[in-house]
Structures are given as C-alpha cells and as structure tokens.
Amino acid sequence: MRAFGFAAAMALGCLFAAPVADALDASARTPVPERSYRSAREALRTGVREYNAGDKEGAARALEYAAGQGHALALWKLGRMYADGDGVPHDDLKAFEYFSKIADANTDDGPDAPDSGVVSSAFTALGGYFLDGIKGTYVRPNPERAYDMFNYAASYFGDPNAQYNLARLYLDGTGVEADAKQAARWFNLAAEKGHRPAQALLGDLLVNGMGGISAQRVRGLAWLALARQGAEGRKDDWIVTLYEKNWAAASADDRAEAESQMQTVGSIRRRR
Fold this sequence. Notes:
This is Exopolysaccharide biosynthesis protein. Helix content is 69%, strand content 0%. It contains 13 helices and no strands. Mean pLDDT is 86; it is low at 1-30.
C-alpha cells in the first residue's frame, strides 16, 4: 500500500503544483488571530469548544491559528466552514485552498493514519471543485482531475462519498469513458457502507439493467427499499421518487422477496 501511496503522491503533486503556486495563500487572506496559543492542539480545542458554543467567529480565529501550524483537522474544519458559509463568508476558493493544503501535506499517508478520514474527505471535496470549477477563479472545470481526486480517495482510503462520486463519473461518462459495470461496482462499495444515494442508484441500475449489466430486479428493489427507509428530508426526495417508480412497476412476488432481501443487504452494511 505504501508503494501506491508514493506513486499517487508524485502524480497528485503535479496536479496541485501549477494552480496552487499561482494562487494567493488561503492564510494570507485570513486576519491574524487576535490571541496566541501555546500549541496548535490548544487552538484546535478552543476552536471546537467555541464553535459548539455558537461563537463561530471566535472558533474561526482559533482554527486559523491551528491551521497556520499545519493542523489537518483545523484546515479541514475551516475548509468546511468556508464551503458552507458557516459562521464565515462563503468562499469556495478559500475552502479549496484549505483542502489543497491537506492534500499536499498528506498524499503519502496510509489509510490507517490518524488523520486518514480528514485527508480522504479533503480529496473528495477537491474532486467536487475540480468537477465544477469555481467561477471567477483559477480553478477551472477539469473532469480528469476530478476523477483523479475521487479515485484516490475511493481506492486508497475507501471513502464512501468518493466511491459514490466516482461511480457517478463512470455512469455519466464524465472525465472517463462511460462504464455502467464500473459504476455499479463503486456504487456497491459505497452502498454497503450505508451511503443512501449510492444504494438508490445501484438499485435503479440493477432493477432496470443497462450498459451490459444483467437485470437483478429483486436485489435492486431491496437496495432501493433500504435507501428509501433511510431517506431524510427534502434532500432525499429524489430517492423516494426513484423508489416509488420502480416499486410500482414491480410484481407483488418481487416486492415480497425484496423486502425479505433487505435484511441481507442491510446485514452487509452492519458488518462493515
């Protein structure tokens, strides 16, 4: 696994070198914290405590101190805050640069490293930015780079969000040649980890069969039913719609067997 990590680090170093070197450093556009801390760890603890207490401005100042010391979790949290406009002005470029710092500093970390979850999440976020670009900035849409980011996080770290996004690229033929079988493979890996959108799209693929995939209606319905069971709020309305469409078209026998198989596919997820 270390050999893969080193090769990936070399390749990804080339990916980030050109644009990030020409960009303003994220920390250069961030106000200097008003207070100092004994360590990045202390600043991180303070930032988390103030964030949870609702003082997001104070949290950002503390996290900026820790991020300036290269603390991966602080960099990631700030990236998420700027990406979401959570207590700070929404700024996708700043978020991109914070995530880039994590990627640049940790490309050779293994999946068992303490910060592996943060690192894989950063690569996945970067994949999203490369996929769509950031309007008015040097970050242009680049589906091939998006593929590299998603593939690295999906393959090396087993990140379910990256696996889902990689599957979408294969399904749509974006940045890579369309391949429904590869899409189903990556959807399946994410679905087994409880990723609802992956469960829904895998189920739809299996129910209908496409791109050389043989229809497996019962198993597909079981995945759709499992996704529907976990659907939450308006953001998952499309999952409910997809489930209802396929469920309505299924025979009573297929529905009954699918409900039985839900326990089987659900147990795969619980064991992982």
